[in-house]
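Before a colleague's protein record goes any further, I have to sign it off. Would you go through it and say whether the fold makes sense for this chain? Take the sequence as given and treat only the tokens as open to question. The record follows directly below this note.
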Amino acid sequence: MTMSGVPADRREARELIVLFCRRMLAERLVSYTSGNISTRIASEPDLVAVTPTSTAYDTLRTDDIVIVRLDGSVVDGSLRPTAELPLHTLAYRDRPDVAGIVHTHGPAAMAVAALGMDLPPILHGLIAACGGGIVTAPYARGATEEMATLTAEPLRHRSACLLRNHGVLAIGPNVEHAYNAASVVEGVADAYLRALPFGPVPEIPADDVRRIRDTQWAPAWAGGEAAPTHGG
């Protein structure tokens, strides 16, 4: 593993993805074969390691992880890459600072996405992990370049966005940062939905949002370290 948390070679990349796939399943951020994860490879910057399509996470092996070029063509692996590969390849092509991507289908985040709601900065951890409140990208059919293109603006100054009627897309300078963002979004979405029946949910003041963003979220992108969570 490099200092930035980006895997050094294909073997490390495959092992890292399997590790986070199992965490993703254990945290109930996905079910069965939904969602996907990818990472750049430090020694081969034109390649990406990504989860295969229609493969259960509890039986996923390192050899199942597919290596693709940024144009989506497979260079190593016997399985087909995720059908939502454009979500990954477009982000990597457009954002040299992105080295890890996590796409999840947690129930709370999916509920917020289905309602077309944004997720305001109501909790400290959301700002530290994601840079602020979360925007829901407009609807587009899944597994299309249109859906990937529509995430560009919501992700411009954030580590995550919601996909309308779909789920969460999280990015980072490494997979750990992206995974942390996706996990925090699910937790905050759950808290937000629980709080809404009691009336408007108070947001963190704008000055504090900027302070947390500048001191806890932004340095992770500058130095390639994982964003902090709630400090526990």
About this structure: Helices lie at 10-26, 85-94, 107-115, 124-130, 145-149, 175-195, 206-223. Strands lie at 36-40, 47-50, 66-69, 74-76, 100-104, 136-137, 160-163, 167-172. The domain at 10-223 is CATH 3.40.225.10 (L-fuculose-1-phosphate Aldolase). The two ends are 25 Å apart (CA to CA).
